[in-house]
Write a sequence for this structure.
C-alpha cells in the first residue's frame, strides 16, 4: 500500500477534513520523494497523521455498504426465524444451514465497507 493511501486512511480515521487531506497529499507529493524516502523523512503515515491531527480520533460512522450487509443479514434472520409462520420455510430447503447466509451477508457487509474505504480515491 502506498504511503499516500496509508496517510489518507490515517487522516480520515483521525477525523481530518477532506480539504486538509488534499492539502497534506499535495504537500507530500510536492516533495518528489518515493514511499521509502517519505517514510524515512516523515515517519510512518500513522505517526505523521498523529502529528498533523493531534488528539483523540473522531468516531467515524458506518458506511452504506456496512448498513446494507447488516440489514440484509437481519432480513435473512427474520425470514429464517419467522418465515414459517407465514408459509416461507427456508429451513426446509437448507436444514441446519439456514443461518449461515445471514452470517455471510454480515461478513460481506463489513468486508465490503472496508474495501470501499480502502479504494475510495483521495481528495483532489
Amino acid at each position: 500500500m502506498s504511503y499516500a493511501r496509508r496517510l489518507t486512511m490515517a487522516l480520515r480515521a483521525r477525523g481530518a477534513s477532506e480539504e486538509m487531506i488534499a492539502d497534506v497529499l499535495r504537500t507530500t507529493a510536492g516533495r518528489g520523494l518515493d514511499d521509502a524516502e517519505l517514510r524515512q523523512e516523515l515517519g510512518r503515515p500513522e505517526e505523521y497523521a498523529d502529528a498533523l491531527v493531534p488528539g483523540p480520533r473522531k468516531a467515524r460512522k458506518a458506511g452504506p455498504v456496512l448498513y446494507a450487509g447488516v440489514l440484509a443479514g437481519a432480513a435473512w434472520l427474520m425470514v429464517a426465524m419467522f418465515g414459517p409462520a407465514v408459509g416461507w420455510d427456508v429451513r426446509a430447503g437448507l436444514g441446519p444451514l439456514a443461518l449461515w447466509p445471514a452470517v455471510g451477508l454480515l461478513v460481506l457487509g463489513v468486508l465490503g465497507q472496508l474495501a470501499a474505504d480502502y479504494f475510495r480515491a483521495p481528495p483532489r
Notes: The chain has two domains: 3-52, 64-119. The first helix runs from residue 3 to 13.
